[in-house]
Design goal:
A: 207 residues, mainly alpha, Nitrile Hydratase, Chain A, 2 domains, two-stranded parallel ribbon, 11 helices, B: 250 residues, alpha+beta, Cyclin A, domain 1, SH3 type barrels
Chain lengths: 207, 250
């Protein structure tokens, strides 16, 4: 059910959950007091539902795969290089990019809360913010990655980044085989959100 | 604080359960909470450290029983009440009103100029890097010990990482210090480092030899631990340059 349907007084209204009731009450009060503009709130929601998401990060990754000079800049200063593609903003003021190679695999978490590079990945998925992930990824990363279907060879070095500061981390996944001759846009279409967290690898077009 | 939020290596949780193609917001009210919070950033405490700490101080049983946005809603309400913007009585009265008329639409207030401009406003963000006079105490490659700090207030040094031997992997200039900033005690920026700690150092000999944690820690969380490493970690020229320019501040 979309937000618009709900607000238009849908034909079969559900009783409001306690949280929905509380949120609605607070919003009503803020609007009545002139402290909140409804359309500003709507636009923010729309922006993070539609405009800011992993497609941004995929473009950054594809650019880095195609342009080694850009890649060097990206690894040197994530936020500045990402801004070249027009992406930036809250939870992205100090982005760091870490590169996966055949010998080194990086995976990112925030054990204390949910820090995550919004401008390139959008808002974090529920699993990233979950107690299971926050608790277990630092202690048993290979086991957790296997739950995602990623089985790393034992000789691959595994680095777990705990985003404890205002520097969120973006993983630059390995450029998969079987992608020779693909355009930057075609490459971007292969890059998944989970691969940019380090919970997956990017698959080439032949899987 | 040694709170419920500090979950690294907490046992008893089951497998991670990713959803395929999940929605950004699972309920309409989650979206409203998100939109309201971001739009009202001027009303609630602006630096993110204070909101984080408010959430950390939720009753542990409430924290564990709440979804992410339920915790966010709890924070929003606490912050608005603490900031004197709304009172508990007003909120409870409004809840009663709406319960009686659940289909009533929330009145709307429009600010088209701001709404039009939201893209530009969102792209601004809120950087936390600062220039300070003191030189960084540590350099990339230095061996350090994370201190056994157990503050009752906000900190970003998780329990699992305290009292451990590590190596400085990167230097990031000075950043606003959350431990004071969360409590309105000032930004007090400190030099910030990425510290590499081996899995065996954290979890014991049964851990894998080729695993490590990298965590970003402020200078006061760290103590020196013997000599500089003979094999230095790759130094980032940009970081090194930043360190120099910061020591020549007016």
């Amino acid at each position: 059910m979309s937000e618009q349907d709900f607000e238009k007084g849908h034909h079969h209204p559900r009783p409001l959950s306690p949280s929905a009731l509380r949120a609605k009450s607070i919003e009503a009060l803020l609007v009545e007091k002139g402290l909140l503009a409804s359309d500003v709130s709507d636009r923010i929601v729309e922006t993070y539902e539609k405009d800011v998401g992993p497609l941004n990060g995929a473009k950054v990754v594809a650019r880095a795969w195609c342009d080694p000079v850009y890649k060097r800049r990206l690894l040197q200063n994530g936020t500045a290089a990402i801004a070249e593609l027009g992406f930036g903003g809250p939870q992205g003021e100090h982005m760091q990019v870490v590169e996966n190679t055949p010998r080194v695999h990086n995976v990112v978490c925030c054990t204390l809360c949910s820090c995550y590079p919004w401008p390139v990945l959008g808002l974090p998925p529920v699993w990233y913010k979950s107690f299971e992930y926050r608790a277990r990824i630092v202690r048993a990363p290979r086991v957790v990655l296997r739950e995602f279907g990623l089985d790393l060879p034992p000789n691959v070095e595994l680095k777990v980044w705990d985003s404890s500061s205002e520097m969120p981390y973006l993983v630059l996944p390995e450029h998969p085989a079987g992608t020779e001759g693909m355009s930057e846009a075609e490459l971007a279409a292969l890059v998944t959100r989970d691969s940019m967290i380090g919970a997956a690898k990017v698959r080439g077009p032949k899987g | 604080m040694n709170g419920i939020h500090d979950m690294g290596d907490m046992d008893g949780f089951g497998p991670v359960q990713p959803e395929t193609n999940e929605f950004v917001f699972h309920e309409p009210w989650e979206a409203r909470v998100f939109g309201m919070s971001m739009a009202s950033a001027g009303l609630a405490p602006a630096p993110i450290d204070a909101p984080r700490h408010l959430i950390e101080r939720l009753d542990p049983a409430v924290y564990l029983a709440s979804s992410y946005y339920e915790r966010w809603l709890a924070w929003l309400e606490k912050a608005l009440v603490a900031g004197g913007v709304l009172s508990r009585e007003q909120i409870e009265a409004k809840i009663k009103d709406i319960s009686a008329n659940p289909d009533l639409l929330i009145p709307r207030r429009e600010d088209p100029a701001t709404a039009e401009n939201i893209g530009a406003l969102i792209r601004r963000g809120n950087p936390v890097t600062r220039t300070i006079r003191t030189k960084p105490r540590f350099a990339v490659g230095d061996r350090v010990m994370t201190r056994n700090l157990n503050p009752r207030g906000h900190t970003r040094l998780p329990r699992y990482s305290r009292g451990k031997h590590g190596v400085i992997a990167a230097y990031h200039g000075a950043h606003v210090f959350p431990d004071t900033n969360a409590h309105g005690l000032g930004e007090n920026p400190q030099h910030l480092y990425t510290v590499r700690i081996s899995a065996r150092e954290l979890w014991g000999d049964t851990a894998e030899a080729n695993e490590c944690i990298l965590i970003d820690l402020w200078e006061s969380y760290l103590a020196s631990d013997g000599s500089k490493s003979k094999t230095s970690v790759t130094r980032s020229p940009a970081n090194a340059k930043r360190a120099t320019s910061k020591t020549s501040s007016p």
